[in-house]
User: Fold these one by one.
Assistant:
Number 1:
Amino acid sequence: MNGNILVVEDEPKLARLLSDYLKASGFEPFLLAHGSEVVAWVREHKPALVLLDLMLPGRDGMDICKELRTFSSVPVIMVTARVEEIDRLLGLELGADDYICKPFSPREVVARVKAVLRRTRDGQTVQAEGLVLDEHRFRAKYHDHDLGLTAVEFKLLQFLVANPGRIYSRQQLMDQIYPDARIVSDRTIDSHIKKLRRKIEAIDPGARLIHSVYSVGYKFEPVPIA
Ligand code: CA
């Protein structure tokens, strides 16, 4: 199991304290004190979780969290010094998984880290190229905007995303979507795909994520096909 936890905290004493407690609980903490270093670090090291202070030199935690969500579903716990800030943060839908208010006991932080890891490992989110899928709620976000998918559209997208580049026939897609082998016509899949694309393109008109493969079926591929 990857137990790398990125701790972003600019108060050295607090950072060390958190690091000690995380280590004692079997995690491998890494410390960053500067906001501008976080995104690149996460891209390179793919930590299991990020503990992210809100007020940081260089770049604030909100901004960082938003950018992380454009390419990663890494669990993020935001840490703030003001309890009233949490309501505002929740309203902004930054995509953080939990919020902790300072002052906190390091023991509580470790408990929250474990809880968030448990929850996210249960398959809460998967992501690909700006897409974040929440399996529990059948919700999909694209670049932070809710796609507003129906359950069928969600399942279709989820199935395609799981194997980027792989081509599925309409029959294979129907078997996934209607496991009870209901008789539906090929056109049903075409119409779901059409709606799915329309919803994605409503957020990014240039997005070409789901491609038709002539006479075969469909595939998910975020890279444009030349
Ligand atoms: Ca701070």
Note: The CA atoms of residues 15 and 137 lie 34 Å apart.
Number 2:
Amino acid sequence: MNNYYQKEIETASPEEIRAIQNAKIVHQVAHVYANVKYYRDLMDAKGVKPEDIKSVDDICKLPFLSKADLREAYPYGLLGMPLSECVRIHSTSGTTGKRVVAFYTQHDIDLWDDCVARAIVAAGGTKEDVCQIAYGFGLFTGGAGLNGGSHKVGCLTLPMSSGNTERQIAFMRDLGATILCCTPSYAAYIGETLKEMGLTPDDIQLKAGIFGAEPWTEEMRRDIEKSLGIKAYDIYGLTETSGPGVAFECSEQTGMHINEDHFYAEIIDPNTLEPLPYGSKGELVFTSLDKEAFPLLRYRTRDICILNRCKCGCGRTFVKMCKPMGRSDDMLIIRGVNVFPSQIETVLLEQGYTPNYRIELDRVNNTDTFDIYVEMSPEQFGDTIKEVATKEKELASAMKTMLGINPKMHLVAPKTIERSEGKAVRVIDKRKLHD
Ligand code: ADP
Ligand code: ZN
């Protein structure tokens, strides 16, 4: 089953997509240069004029933007349209520091909604579906983004927002929700709660889930799919580029198609800042080709990723990005070793544990301490102290193999690690307090 929301563009030839991108970038650079002083100054400092950008091949001549620029330009410095033309503001969740605000005209909202609609249709959504949106509504882009896309597809939309999990499940059952949209950590929690309520996937009508806004592993995908009886699709985006829907997964589940008619993607070496060819691992950089109000050019996402343009079984021609492999600023440096929380999660799920864990870092006598707290299953909770100690040792050794350093493992009672209704907070780094 291959359905498309905008078939012509989603299956256009690479040459056709190129032609669209080339036409848009010329217009977009002229728009930004004329209306965004902050970026015009960056271009002038680099000696680049709008006339130098004739096609997307010239994008590499443009200066980069980073989160630091967004903070410096806060709140209006990167605005490309008069405020009277803007209809909405969203803000980042602030997982990595101060908030960033983004502005939207009605045109920007429309194209964002189209991007999300493509994702919903790729996950099998049609106007016959009931789409339950359990991403947070508010300044966070998750709720509003999926809501807009769901309306475009014509699904019956349930704008639940996150939280009140038993009520989510009650509504899901009463109203026959068929598609669930939320963060993967909240989807896992909903699955867990369903079981606790004595229910099984047969008691609900969900068939698909669209989960994103935070990293999640293939193991976590399988767990969620099993606990809710669905096929789980990934969706990617960031506030700076509008929100979720910059890229979305198709039925092949082998990476996310980037909506290339709206966003031009590059992979760069984060150290040398040189663009890298398809297939290389590096930092993902986006240029928005037609956003008006917040038209970021060459925005460095900090997400580490690989792009590839292999033919996809779904028929879509858009370039694909792999699951982000961590964020260069999510990366923990523990005793000098680079550690990504996703690696820890992979080990836990491989060893049969739940993804309910917390990493605690501290510094004692100038040495980093590295503790991982993991919940036991209710069955394991009956183990003797000796059995638990053995399991902790086994886990620590599996972690050492994966990470190259030894954490102290703590198996804790079920339900003692706080659940997340939005993006999970998994790292408590107390070292910063001492710096
Ligand atoms: P922030 O978390 O930086 O405050 P956002 O709420 O806009 O701001 O989050 C965007 C970030 O969330 C992305 O840069 C990426 O790191 C992460 N993210 C979004 N979707 C996914 C996904 N599907 N998989 C992994 N990470 C994702
Ligand atoms: Zn595909």
Note: The two ends are 55 Å apart (CA to CA).
